[in-house]
Amino acid sequence: MSRWPGNALRERTTFGGLSRGELMSRVRSTGNETTEKRLVSLLRAAGLSGWRRHQPLSGRPDFVWQKIKVVVFVDGCFWHGHDCGRNVTPRTNAKEWREKIEANQARDRKTNRLLRQEGWKVIRIWECQLAKNPSRCVARLRKATEDGKPMVRKSERDRYGSLE
Ligand SMILES: [Zn+2]
Question: How many angstroms does the Cα of residue 164 sit away from the middle of ligand 1?
């Protein structure tokens, strides 16, 4: 994966300069509970409604607008391998971590494909985007839900695109 070699430098420092506690809190955020709750309050504040959580769809999206077929995933930067500096690889067992995260990325792509084939519009939001620019995230969701119809395939742009 082309994203990983760039992290070689960070790997030389212990946990990429994070304390063990900081690292572990990122690792533990796999369920995204905190980030999801944050998005819940943002959606409520923005008056966006009609979504449900944890519907039994491929990849278990975090938010689902059933009628207009929009799903939203909030992806933890660590587990989903975002190249934003939050996904430092622990120095010990680096290979195993990388494999785990690459497997997650492959699964994310597969999930996107499956859902899009079923006519879902798939929105993925990185936890760092939500932290840094919540209003932009809300605007994206507002647009997606107001369109109210499945978007023409935008390939992987939404997923890995230019929203750094
Ligand atoms: Zn990130």
Answer: 8
Cα 51 to ligand 1 centre (Å): 24
Least confident of 83-87, 95-99, 121-125: 83-87
**In one letter, which amino acid is 69?**
K
Give the global pTM. 0.70
* Residue 114 belongs to domain with CATH number: 3.40.960.10
116 is in which domain, residue-wise?
5-151
Which amino acid would we find at residue 125?
I
CA of 97 from ligand 1 middle (Å) equals 17
Whether the CB-CB separation of 11 and 89 falls below 8 Å is answered with yes
For ligand 1, the distance from its centroid to the CA atom of residue 132, given in whole angstroms, is: 10
In a domain, 162, yes or no: no
Q: How far is the CA of 56 from the centre of ligand 1 (A)?
A: 26
